[in-house]
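Fold this sequence, please.
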Amino acid sequence: MEEFLTWEKTGDVIVFRFHNNIVSEITSNLRHDIIQVLRDEHVDTAVFHMGDATYIDSMGIGMFVHLHVQHRDSVRFLFCSLSDGISKAFGYVKLISFFDIRDSLDDALEELNFVDL
């Protein structure tokens, strides 16, 4: 079975790594997994590392908007390492300024005072 999402936790930060494109066929499972991890791990910040995902469709975008709105009072979301395709998709639907985006995982972790994850 192909792996689409992994995560690792350090302190109050969890990094979700997406290993494939984020498309309608998998968004329901991704959302479920992310919500479950957030509930189980009780973190303050979630970083979405998008380095291996080159494409996102409208269902994938909707999933991130839903997660952001649903958890905005309890979890800070950072996105990092957006591919050109995902960056353009976020830009087309005017979400570049809606989401908190960093160039790299190192930039995100440095801002959060973590150096290695």
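The CA atoms of residues 45 and 54 lie 23 Å apart. The two ends are 25 Å apart (CA to CA).
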